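Reviewers of the previous submission asked for a worked example of the structure-prediction workflow described in the proposal, so we include one complete record here. The input consisted solely of the amino acid sequence. No template or homolog information was supplied to the procedure at any stage.
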Amino acid sequence: MGNWTGLRFPDPFSTFNFAVEIEGLLVGGFTEASGLESRIEMESYREGGVNGFVHQLPGAATPSNLVLRHGLSAVSELWNWYDNTARGVIQRKNGTIALLDRRRIPVMWWNFRNALPVRWTGPTFNAGTDEVGFESLELAHEGLTKPLLGQALALGHGIADMAG
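From that input alone, the workflow returned the following structure tokens.
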């Protein structure tokens, strides 16, 4: 083993600063984006005469739905997309969730493809508070990618932070 003394790894990125783009449109200041998840389903295969284990073979990757949440405003782009889908006007869209650094420069991003809104949730009304109303949109999609360029920029950003 080598000498690890003085070796410092890049600090992890904070997740409070991000942007969401759908079909080239920055669709709002989101307060939360969740569901960046994909799982590979495993299939069991028993081989005749082999009793010590069961083969585990990878199957299809299945992404989770994305949930985008933001403060309610006069911009109705997300509602219109959901409403059109509910009325049978289907328009699948591609998009990106980008993690930004403190200067609001993208340092890493995930692309999703062929998304379709499957659930809209509106604000909760309460006359006893002055809280901001939120809406959320849940998107089913056909998979996530994490482009190599974004990975390289994130690595370069982390190394620059360590040096500076």
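Strands lie at 18-22, 25-26, 30-34, 38-45, 55-63, 66-71, 93-100, 106-121, 134-140, 144-145. We consider this example representative of the routine output the project will generate in years two and three.
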